[in-house]
Amino acid sequence: MDETVVALGFFDGVHAGHCRILGTAVNIAKEKGIKSAACTFSVHPRAFVRGIAPAMLTSLQRRKELILEQGIERVEVLEFDKNMSDMSPDDFASLLKDRYGCTNAVCGGNFRFGKNAQGTPDTLRANGIEVTVCDPVCMGGDVVSSTRIRRLISEGRLQGAGELLGRNFVLTGRVVDGFKLGRRLGRPTMNLRPDDGLILPATGVYASRVLLEGQAFYSITNIGTRPTFSNDDIVSVESHIMDFCRDIYGQAAAVELVQRLRDERRFDSETELLRQIDKDMAYSREILDREYAK
């Protein structure tokens, strides 16, 4: 089995701090002339141990894609179940060596593993694995963390979240049937059903891009309950894609949220709503042109 440098972590969001760990693993692998890999878990350990997990910044598939974009050669996903939860720290170290050829590991200082989270980087060293512990990345006077990014997103502060992620926040999912209210109004929308477990930003209207089949399309996205037409509290994600006319129902898609424009609000008439939508589109296009038309 090839000797391998393994980056260890859950890596939700693959933010700037995670990228430091992954980049360090890639560099060590190049220096030593060996392979690089990242080891993550299928579900957040807290979901199994405590029965509840934080809302995720990325689906497992997107997490894997983002990790590979950092130059890591392969991503290993461990199923976090009762066996994994009960595994001793020494057995986890043995698993890394026997299954993945781990001779070197890279992690953050707070990485813990094994039953009751008793394993530390020193445990790996005691089992013959050379360990590099990366310092956290700090921005804006505080440590970059998935928890901090989730808070910013839940408050609608997408630009701040994007700075910590190193990219704009993206909601992944699938296009589903909606109420077709936008079509009736002459402003058809794409209704996205986000992947299970993903965090939703604060309700409101956002400048956005719809990512579909390798292409990016300017859009405005409403996240909310459509108060002009409904009194229920069901939150939907609806994007009006500019200059677009295609049947995309059932397809995988994503919405890249660039900037929050305004609160969601109830309008007294459809005419008033349409007037505001057109203003939102113009403002969104202006923001997106500044961001991408270079």
Give descriptors for this structure.
single chain, 294 residues, alpha/beta, Rossmann fold, Elongation Factor Tu (Ef-tu), domain 3, 2 domains, 6-stranded antiparallel β-barrel, 5-stranded parallel sheet, 10 helices, 13 strands, 28% strand, elongated
Name given to the CATH architecture of the largest domain: 3-Layer(aba) Sandwich
Q: Could you give the count of β-strands?
A: 13
Coarse shape: elongated
Mean pLDDT: 92
The CATH topology annotation of the largest domain reads as Rossmann fold
Please list the strands of the largest sheet in the order they lie side by side: 8-9-12-11-10-13
Share of helical residues: 25-40%
| Percent range for β-strand residues | 25-35%
Structural class: alpha/beta
CATH class of the largest domain: Alpha Beta
Written description of the protein model:
34% of the residues lie in helices and 28% in strands. It is α/β, with parallel strands linked by helices and 294 residues long. The protein has two domains: 4-143, HUPs (Rossmann fold); 169-292, Elongation Factor Tu (Ef-tu), domain 3, CATH 2.40.30. The protein has a six-stranded antiparallel β-barrel. Strands 3-2-1-4-5 form a five-stranded parallel beta sheet. α7 (146-154) packs antiparallel against α8 (158-165). It is elongated. 32% of the residues are buried.
Summarize the structure.
By secondary structure, the chain is α/β, with parallel strands linked by helices.
Draw up the topology in text:
Elements: E1 4-8, H1 16-32, E2 35-41, H2 45-49, H3 60-69, E3 74-78, H4 82-86, H5 89-100, E4 102-108, H6 121-126, E5 130-134, E6 138-139, E7 142-143, H7 146-154, H8 158-165, E8 169-176, H9 181-184, E9 190-194, E10 204-212, E11 215-224, E12 236-241, E13 252-262, H10 270-292
Parallel strand pairs: 1-2, 1-4, 2-3, 4-5
Antiparallel strand pairs: 6-7, 8-9, 8-13, 9-12, 10-11, 10-13, 11-12
